[in-house]
Specification:
Elements lengths: L7 E13 L2 E7 L14 E5 L5 E5 L11 E7 L8 H6 L6 E5 L14 E6 L3 H13 L5 E6 L8 H4 L5 E5 H4 L5 H8 L4 E5 L2 H10 L8 E4 L13 E5 L4 E5 L5 H7 L17 E6 L2 E2 L7 H6 L2 E3 L4 E2 L3 E4 L2
Parallel strand pairs: 7-8, 7-10, 8-9, 10-11, 12-18
Antiparallel strand pairs: 1-2, 1-6, 2-5, 3-4, 3-6, 12-13, 14-16, 14-18, 15-17
Helix pairs in contact: 5-6
C-alpha cells in the first residue's frame, strides 16, 4: 500500500514509552523544532512506514497551532499484524525519520454537550483519553468506561484516577464483558456517547444506542466495517478532470481513478480514515465506509471512494 496525502511532513521519532502489555506510545516531533499543525480531540494521523505500509493512529494529545510541538500515538502489537504494528514495535527506533500526514478528524468531540460518556476498549483508550483530557480542561466531568481483557493490558491507570468518574473494567476479573447496554440506559437519553475499541465492542455499542438520535452517537473504527463494493459495471464521470471511466467488476473507484492518472488523496484503502472523501454531484453511492454517519450516507453529498460503489449505473464526482 502506498500513501498519497495532500500534506505529509517528515518528523523524527523522539521517544518510545511503555503504556501496557504490548502497547507503546510513540512521540513524533519536527526535526527543526518547529510547531506542528493543530490537532483536535479525536484526530488521527497517517504514518507512512519505511516498509511501504501506511497506518492510521489516533492522537493522545490535542492542542492548538501555537502549542502543538509533538504528536503522540499509542500502538498495540497485533498478533495478526500484517506489518504495521509489528514493524513499529520491532524495527522503529528513536531518531528515525518518518512521513506523517497532517491530522484529520473523523471522530470530533462536541465540547458543548451537557453530558458526555466515553467508552473505550483496549487501544481505543487513545482518542477517548484525549477527549477526556480536553473536557477536564474545560471544567467538565465526563463519564469514562475503559475495558480491557486483562489487568496487564490497562494503560494510564494513574491518570484515570484523576478523573471524577472513571471506571476500569477487566474482563478476566469479572468473567464478563463490559455491559454497554446498561451504561446507555443508566447515563440517560440526553448524553453524547463516544466509543472506540475492537469490532465486537463497537457492534454492541451501536446496538445499545440504536434508539438514540444519531447526532448523539459517535464511533471510530480501526478496521473496515464492511467489505469493499467490488460489483463494478458502472460509469464514473470525473467532472473537473473531464474524464469518464468504467469501473469493472473486482475494482474500486479509487483504483480506477488512480489508474487513469487523476490525482486523488488516499491512505488506508479500507474506508476508515476519510482521506479519499469526494463530493458526489450526481448518482447514488453504495456506501461501505466507517466514516460517514447514517444521515450523511442518506444525503449522499460525499462518498469514500476506496471502498464504496454505485447503486445505479452512473456517478458524477467532483474530481
Amino acid at each position: 500500500m502506498t500513501e498519497q496525502l495532500n500534506e505529509v511532513m517528515t518528523l523524527r521519532l523522539s521517544a518510545i514509552n511503555y503504556l501496557a502489555r504490548n502497547t507503546w506510545a510513540f512521540t513524533f516531533e519536527d526535526p527543526a523544532g518547529n510547531l506542528l499543525p493543530a490537532a483536535e480531540p479525536g484526530s488521527h494521523v497517517a504514518v507512512v512506514l519505511p516498509n511501504g505500509l501506511t497506518r492510521q493512529y489516533s492522537l493522545l494529545e490535542s492542542s492548538n497551532s501555537l502549542t502543538q510541538r509533538s504528536y503522540v500515538i499509542g500502538v498495540k502489537l497485533d498478533p495478526q499484524s500484517r506489518g504495521g504494528s509489528r514493524y513499529m514495535h520491532e524495527t522503529m527506533r528513536v531518531g528515525d525519520l518518518v512521513q506523517v500526514g497532517v491530522p484529520r478528524n473523523n471522530f470530533p468531540l462536541n465540547e458543548d454537550a451537557a453530558h458526555t460518556v466515553l467508552v473505550a476498549g483496549g487501544i481505543g483508550i487513545t482518542p477517548i483519553l484525549c477527549m477526556a483530557r480536553r473536557l477536564k480542561e474545560l471544567g467538565q466531568s465526563p463519564r469514562i468506561y475503559y475495558s480491557c481483557r486483562d489487568r496487564v493490558d490497562v494503560a494510564f491507570t494513574e491518570e484515570l484516577k484523576s478523573f471524577e468518574h472513571a471506571l476500569i473494567h477487566v474482563d478476566a476479573e469479572t468473567n464478563a464483558f463490559l455491559n454497554i447496554a446498561d451504561i446507555v440506559q443508566r447515563e440517560g437519553q440526553d448524553a453524547h456517547f463516544y466509543c472506540c475499541g475492537p469490532g465486537p465492542m463497537l457492534v454492541a455499542f451501536e446496538a445499545a444506542c440504536a434508539a438514540l438520535p444519531p447526532e448523539q452517537i459517535h464511533v471510530e473504527y480501526f478496521t473496515a466495517k464492511q467489505e469493499a463494493a467490488l460489483d463494478g459495471n458502472f460509469v464514473v464521470e470525473l467532472r473537473k478532470s473531464r474524464k469518464t471511466l468504467t469501473v469493472p467488476q473486482g475494482k474500486t473507484i479509487l483504483g480506477v481513478v488512480r489508474e487513469a492518472g487523476v490525482p486523488v488523496s488516499y491512505s488506508c484503502e479500507e474506508g476508515v480514515c476519510g482521506a479519499c472523501e469526494v463530493r458526489v454531484l450526481e448518482g447514488q453511492p453504495d456506501h461501505r465506509d466507517a466514516i460517514l454517519s447514517e444521515p450523511e450516507k442518506a444525503a449522499s453529498k460525499t462518498m469514500i471512494i476506496c471502498c464504496s460503489g454505485c447503486k445505479g449505473d452512473r456517478l458524477v464526482l467532483d474530481l
